[in-house]
Design brief:
three-stranded antiparallel sheet, elongated, single chain
Length: about 180
């Protein structure tokens, strides 16, 4: 299984077009909620198919709130785009920092999993959007970049063999 990125894109377009939010804070919360829901529902590491169980949605929401407010206050399209890029990069990186994945599938040679932690939150997604982007442009760009970003997240899974020896396996990417 993998994240249904197209569904996430469609939901983001719907959130913006249907004007479900009253203000930037509401938009930030809805976008963070949908990203978190998509990730926690279907994401898994590429090698062992363990799912994320702990992330920092509040960090993403906070970064989006700041991005929307600051971008709205700027007078320049390029400045707004830079603000959005920086804050979304911070938010996505913070979302994954210290994340934990499930302990269901042990690494090769191990009989159980001891830890499964995000050790590198990925290369920043570098989303290029601004406060004047159309809903479809915003959603498409956001999803395209976070989807590519997910492949750069690094985990370390530690397990134990039947004899008690440790097994440490680095994993690159989630889908």
């Amino acid at each position: 299984m993998s994240v249904n990125w197209k569904d996430l894109e469609d939901k983001l377009v719907s959130i913006i077009k249907d004007r479900r939010a009253k203000n930037e804070d509401d938009y930030a919360k809805l976008i963070a909620d949908e990203y978190d829901r998509a990730v926690l529902l279907k994401a898994q590491d590429i090698m062992l198919a363990n799912k994320p169980i702990s992330t920092k949605k509040s960090s993403l929401e906070s970064a989006l709130k700041n991005a929307f407010k600051l971008a709205k206050a700027t007078r320049s399209e390029s400045e707004a785009q830079n603000i959005m890029r920086v804050f979304i990069n911070i938010g996505i990186g913070s979302y994954w920092t210290g994340g934990q994945f499930g302990l269901t599938n042990p690494p090769p040679g191990a009989v159980s999993v001891v830890t499964n932690l995000v050790v590198f939150p990925g290369i920043p997604p570098d989303v290029k959007i601004s406060n004047s982007s159309k809903p479809e442009e915003f959603a498409r760009e956001f999803v395209l970049r976070v989807r590519s970003h997910a492949l750069t997240i690094k985990l370390v899974t530690t397990g134990v063999t039947a004899s008690g020896s440790p097994v440490v396996v680095p994993i690159s990417g989630i889908n």
